[in-house]
Design goal:
The chain has 614 residues and is α+β, with helices and mostly antiparallel strands. The protein has four domains: 92 residues; 159 residues, no CATH class; 153 residues, Tick-borne Encephalitis virus Glycoprotein, domain 1, CATH 2.60.98; 133 residues. Helix content is 34%, strand content 30%. It contains seven helices and 34 strands. The strands form nine sheets. Strands 5, 6, 9, 10, 11, 26, 27, 28, 29 and 32 form a ten-stranded antiparallel β-sheet that branches. A six-stranded mixed β-sheet has the order 19-20-23-24-12-25, with no helix packed on it. Strand 13 and strand 14 form a beta hairpin. Helix 1 runs antiparallel to helix 7, helix 2 packs across helix 4 and helix 2 runs antiparallel to helix 6. The longest helix is centred in the middle third of the chain and has 54 residues. The radius of gyration is 52 Å and the shape is rod-shaped. The two termini are 27 Å apart. About 3% of the residues have low confidence.
Length: 614
């Protein structure tokens, strides 16, 4: 190689390096740009000096992340590259490109494209838009609207407090179970509602009520052939659809009702039965209170009677009393004899009865005579008459109170019987709306050993056309000794919804959120990696083509393998270090000048040699 060749080659190499640096400087603000570095070789011993450049190497460092306000600004935190195509998937003329520039927008057809109109590729959504498939194609934004979908299934998981007692009410002094009534929270222990949708997207409420009843003993498996007994707490389940009681079907595992006259009539009848029960219960309680008052009045009257009798006996037949009427004398004497007979343990019952009869006769005679005479000792006579009057009044009170006690006892008994009968009738009417019974042993639901835990909630309009038919799964219910708490309450189906938001998570999954609270998957980004990424061929618009030297792309998804994670509302900045590039530019300028000096030296030597021959 001549001196001229070496000099020219050196100048060309430095010029190529200056172009690389200049290109780096020009792309200092280009999103996703990777700075390139020139590679120099020994030009003297380089084989086949055909004039190619010295070669370059792409910077593999991760660029800094810059936050943005657009969810379609994407960056890869890792080695993956975005996949783009020139045409929508399926076009045989489509070309595939790869880029780290994640600045995307939406075109008029709803496709996600870059600044040059290339389509962002990814895994297409499945039919239900709940996830992505393995099919790769151009990604689109989620639909602008979610069409209504009728609910078909639902799930309710909650804990029913096993410590609670069954709802009871006192009837005639006896605690009896309260019949269920949805409008009366004291008749059940817990309630909640599941939201469901009809085919028009209209929201309906399926309300569930849980009423504790008496515990029961159940047989549980204990080994292959043996069983063991355990105590199970029980809760009855009732359902309403939009406030209408859902009655159990013959199989015992579904609730259904039809709106209109039939439903209104059934509801009216059930309410009438319950009102009768409530009225009878009120009557029973009132009669019971009257009876208790009568008993207290009777006891007070008897106490007054006993006190009056003692006072009367203290008035002895003195000369002054003898001056009173014979009837008064006989009454005081009979009272003394009655007290003596009642207080003497040796006096038999017949003598006590005789003394009582004698006293009653004397009292009757006294009431028909004038108790005072002109010749009586006024003070003694007044004492006798006062004591007799008190006793007489007390005796009358005893009679009245005893009569009222007897009457109120009968009224209380009759009212209690009426209340119990009404309660039984109401319970029979309510029984048709009991959807099932849940049994729990040590807090765990027995499941298939009892009634089914999958219930149907059906409601039809007034023309008999179904509004909804939802299968509710209650198999995850528990009955531990803690407060009532709902852990899951959901159903499929949805109302009409408009797209209200868009997001891309770190796996590259794209989702749309809607005004009805729903979400739809629009697909998942496909990322590519190469065995030799430096060998990719640059194309216009910060994108690259695969080459035989780079190897075929390996496709995958973010957060798997070495592809890295996707960052939404972020852009990867250029890796160009402006200060370093300017320093390199000055060095390359000096090297270029040095190479040009070698040409001048070679030219001087050649000129000297030519002149020597003259």
């Amino acid at each position: 190689m001549s001196s001229f060749d070496s000099g020219i080659k050196g100048m060309n190499t430095q010029n190529a390096a200056i172009q690389v640096v200049s290109n780096n400087i020009a792309n200092a603000n280009t999103v996703g740009y990777k700075a390139r570095q020139s590679l120099f070789v020994d030009e003297y011993f380089k084989a086949a000096p055909t004039g190619e450049d010295a070669g370059t190497r792409r910077d593999a460092a991760q660029g800094a992340m810059k936050g943005t306000s657009s969810a379609l600004d994407l960056a890869v935190q890792g080695n993956g590259m975005f996949c783009l195509t020139s045409q929508v998937s399926g076009d045989t003329a489509s070309s595939t490109y790869y880029s780290r520039n994640g600045s995307f927008a939406v075109n008029k057809d709803g496709y996600i494209v870059n600044a040059n109109g290339l389509f962002l590729n990814g895994y297409q959504p499945n039919a239900t838009r709940t996830g992505a498939t393995n099919t790769v194609g151009a990604l689109m934004m989620p639909p602008a609207m979610i069409e209504p979908k009728a609910s078909s299934t639902g799930t309710l998981a909650a804990n029913l407090d096993g410590r609670q007692a069954k709802p009871t009410v006192m009837v005639g002094g006896v605690a009896v179970s309260k019949p269920f009534l949805a409008s009366d929270p004291s008749t059940y222990n817990a309630s909640t509602s599941v939201k469901v949708f009809d085919a028009n997207g209209v929201t309906h409420q399926v309300s569930l009520y849980f009423k504790k009843i008496d515990d029961t003993v159940v047989d549980l498996p204990n080994g292959d052939t043996n069983t063991r007994q355990a105590t199970a707490s029980q809760f009855e389940v009732y359902m309403e659809g939009d406030g209408v009681a859902l009655s159990r079907d013959p199989a015992g595992n579904a609730g259904s009702a039809t709106l209109g006259a039939a439903a209104d009539t059934a509801a009216t009848q059930a309410k009438a039965v319950y009102d009768t029960y409530v009225t009878a219960l009120g009557n029973a309680n009132a009669a019971s209170n009257d009876y208790q008052s009568a008993v207290a009045a009777t006891q007070a009257a008897k106490a007054a009677q006993d006190a009056a009798l003692v006072n009367l006996a203290h008035v002895t037949p003195t000369e002054a009393l003898e001056s009173a009427s014979p009837e008064a004398f006989e009454l005081v004497s009979a009272a003394s004899a009655l007290i003596a007979a009642n207080s003497n343990a040796e006096v038999d019952g017949e003598a006590q009865i005789a003394a009582q009869e004698a006293f009653n006769g004397a009292l009757a005679s006294y009431k028909g005579a004038d108790p005072l005479t002109d010749s009586a000792d006024i003070l003694a006579a007044q004492q006798a008459v006062a004591a007799i009057s008190v006793y007489s009044s007390a005796t009358e009170r005893v009679g009245r109170a005893t009569t009222k006690e007897t009457d109120s006892l009968k009224a209380s008994s009759d009212a209690s019987e009426a209340a119990i009968k009404a309660a039984e009738e109401n319970a029979a009417a309510v029984e048709t709306t009991r959807i099932g019974t849940l049994q729990f042993v040590e807090g765990q639901l027995l499941g298939s050993q009892t009634e089914p835990t999958l219930f149907n909630a059906q409601l039809s309009d007034d023309k008999g056309i179904g509004l909804f038919n939802v299968s509710l799964d209650l198999s995850k219910m528990t009955g531990f000794g803690s407060a009532f708490a709902v852990t899951k309450n959901s159903s499929d189906g949805n109302s009409l919804g408009a797209l209200s938001g868009f997001s891309v998570d770190e796996t590259g999954t794209m989702r749309g959120t809607y005004t009805n609270g729903g979400t739809l998957v629009a697909g998942q980004l496909a990322l590519a990696s190469f065995q030799a990424p430096d060998e990719l061929s640059a194309a216009a618009g910060t994108v690259f083509n695969a080459t035989s030297a780079s190897g075929d792309p390996v496709l995958g998804t973010a957060t798997s393998g070495s592809f890295g994670a996707v960052r939404s509302s972020s852009l990867e900045q250029s890796t160009v270090d402006m200060a370093a590039e300017l320093v390199n530019l000055m060095i390359l300028q000096r090297n270029y000048q040095a190479s040009s000096q070698s040409l001048q030296a070679a030219n001087t030597l050649l000129t000297t040699a030519i002149n020597m021959g003259r």
